[in-house]
């Protein structure tokens, strides 16, 4: 790291007063005319992986952003754009009870029907296939001007890098993708004076925290232009948000809580669990929305912010405190206060002498339950596959081509297949199939519940560590490091629509 690159040189004694006044006036008029642009990019990488929740999240984010004060322009890119073909997977209740045996046998949704349809996202400009999206973003970014503010929101899927964080991917339509280095290259083409922020909600999104560093490098040095952002999960962890259901009341992903904080209401229209306005200035910044999601969410996500990643990166190289008193939560900063609050939700007293022991006990218990349910679900998966194979073998002897015919069924079983359905119901192994699948459904819900409880414990620990890192950073970091950190934090804290 070059310390000089982290400094902001002052021009106070280099220019006459008149010149300085002219510069201030010019800056004011530029900001007054500045625009806020939001790019909402979403969908799966193909029809099989483009779940309805992703579509609903994009619509929710767009409506929330449009409702906020200030002037902004939305640029929406979703799946296949204007193509009328099917690009969304959704589950709907089965209207015909006769569908259930076929659904259980061929995994079409059991008590539900899995359908595909065209998306319902209004105002879409185009698709997200890389050969369409990349030139569109390059064109859009070139049309920005100094003082403009950019917010990029992605809702979809992501995968970790096999080697090198710069190869973390977010997936685009037609099984294409952007890696960290691709997004870095696009953002590097922004005109000087454009502020760039991002909210990335895909699995393993934490790898994209590198976007604030030159060439996505492992350094504390920041890019020349202003960049900051928020990620739904760590670089090595999946994220919630991939349900085919349109029941928004069941959504617990980062998008749900982040945009609820900005909207000032829960996604179902109800009140928020707590006020996200931490500094009580009457506005909720993206940083405050992020912290609301950290504390209020009952979710399997453990989110990240770029300023938090900066502290983490700093302490990995410099933080070597040991001994009593150096691992106690620091309630003098926001992370410590939120850690205490979240611990209380988990029925833990963060400031008691027994906290670490009790926290560890809970973490071990929840981790064991997660492992147990995963093993049980794998066992049930094998059992279900064996029973299905036996029933399918017997059913297709009398009804050749049953699988192909079943795959074309809509909401009602045709008369030609009703006898086949009755035969499946009478099969000696059918009750065993129903029992195993019902147990699998219940096990998946219990697994998710324990994953969420485990993530809440991880968020308590994350907030506690952040309180410690920030406490020691403020007293021991170099001035260039403090300047860089403040740049990130100021970027994250600027309200949408603000100067």
Description:
By secondary structure, the protein is α/β, with parallel strands linked by helices. It is built from 14 helices and twelve strands. The strands form three sheets. A seven-stranded mixed beta sheet has the order 5-2-1-6-10-11-12. A three-stranded antiparallel beta sheet has the order 7-8-9. α2 (52-67) packs parallel to α6 (254-263), α6 crosses α7 (286-296) and α10 packs antiparallel against α13 (430-476). The longest helix has 47 residues, at 430-476. It starts with 16 loop residues before the first helix and ends in a 6-residue tail after the last helix.
- The ordered H/E elements are HEHEEHEEHEEEEHEEHHEHHHHHHH
Distance between the termini: 30 Å
Per the principal axes of the C-alpha atoms, what is the gross shape? globular
Strand residue content = 5-15%
Question: Which strand order does the major sheet show?
Answer: 5-2-1-6-10-11-12
Query: What is the number of beta strands?
Result: 12
Low-confidence stretches: 1-33, 321-325
Largest β sheet strand count, sense and barrel closure = 7 strands, mixed
Radius of gyration: 26 Å
- Averaging pLDDT over every residue, what do you get? 88
Helix content range of the residues, please?
40-55%
Number of helices: 14
The structural class is: alpha/beta
């Amino acid at each position: 790291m070059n310390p000089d690159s982290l400094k902001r040189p002052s021009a106070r004694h280099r220019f006459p007063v008149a010149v300085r006044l002219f510069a201030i006036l010019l800056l004011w008029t530029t900001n007054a005319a500045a625009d806020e642009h939001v790019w909402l990019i979403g969908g799966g990488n193909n029809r099989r992986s483009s779940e309805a929740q992703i579509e609903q999240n994009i619509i929710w984010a767009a409506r929330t952003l449009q409702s906020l004060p200030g002037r902004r322009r939305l640029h929406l890119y979703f799946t296949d754009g204007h193509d009328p073909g099917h690009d969304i997977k959704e589950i709907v209740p089965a209207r015909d009870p006769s569908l259930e045996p076929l659904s259980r046998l061929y995994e079409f949704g059991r008590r539900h029907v899995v359908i595909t349809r065209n998306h319902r996202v209004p105002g879409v400009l185009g698709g997200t296939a890389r050969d369409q999206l990349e030139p569109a973003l390059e064109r859009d970014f070139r049309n920005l001007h100094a003082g403009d503010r950019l917010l990029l929101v992605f809702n979809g899927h992501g995968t970790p890098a096999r080697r090198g964080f710069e190869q973390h991917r977010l997936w685009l339509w037609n099984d294409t993708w952007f890696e960290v280095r691709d997004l870095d290259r696009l953002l590097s083409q922004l005109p000087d004076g454009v502020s760039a922020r991002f909210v990335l909600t895909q699995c393993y999104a934490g790898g994209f925290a590198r976007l604030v560093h030159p060439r996505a490098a492992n350094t504390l040095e920041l890019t020349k232009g202003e960049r900051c952002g928020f990620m739904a999960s760590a670089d090595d962890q999946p994220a919630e948000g991939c349900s085919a259901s349109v029941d928004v009341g069941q959504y617990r992903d980062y998008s749900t809580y982040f945009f609820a904080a900005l909207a000032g209401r829960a996604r179902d229209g109800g009140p928020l669990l707590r006020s996200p306005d931490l500094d009580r200035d009457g506005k909720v910044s993206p940083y405050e929305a992020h912290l609301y999601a950290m504390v209020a969410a009952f979710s399997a996500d453990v989110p990240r912010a770029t300023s938090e990643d900066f502290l983490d990166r700093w302490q990995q190289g410099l933080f070597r405190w040991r001994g009593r008193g150096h691992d106690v939560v620091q309630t003098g900063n926001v992370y410590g206060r939120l850690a205490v609050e979240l611990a209380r939700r988990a029925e833990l007293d963060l400031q008691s002498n027994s906290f670490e022991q009790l926290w560890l006990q809970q973490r071990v218990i929840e981790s064991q339950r997660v492992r147990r349910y995963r093993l049980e679900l794998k066992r049930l998966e094998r059992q279900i596959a064996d029973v299905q194979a036996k029933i399918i073998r017997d059913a297709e002897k009398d009804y050749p081509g049953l699988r192909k015919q079943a795959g074309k069924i809509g909401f009602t079983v045709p008369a030609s297949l009703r006898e086949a359905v009755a035969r499946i119901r009478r099969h000696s192994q059918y009750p065993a199939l129903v029992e195993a699948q019902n147990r699998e459904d219940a096990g998946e819900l219990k697994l998710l519940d324990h994953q969420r409880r485990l993530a809440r414990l991880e968020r308590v620990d994350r907030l506690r560590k952040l309180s410690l890192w920030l406490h020691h950073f403020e007293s021991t970091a170099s001035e260039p490091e403090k300047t860089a950190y403040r740049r990130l934090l100021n970027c994250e804290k600027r309200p949408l629509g603000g100067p």
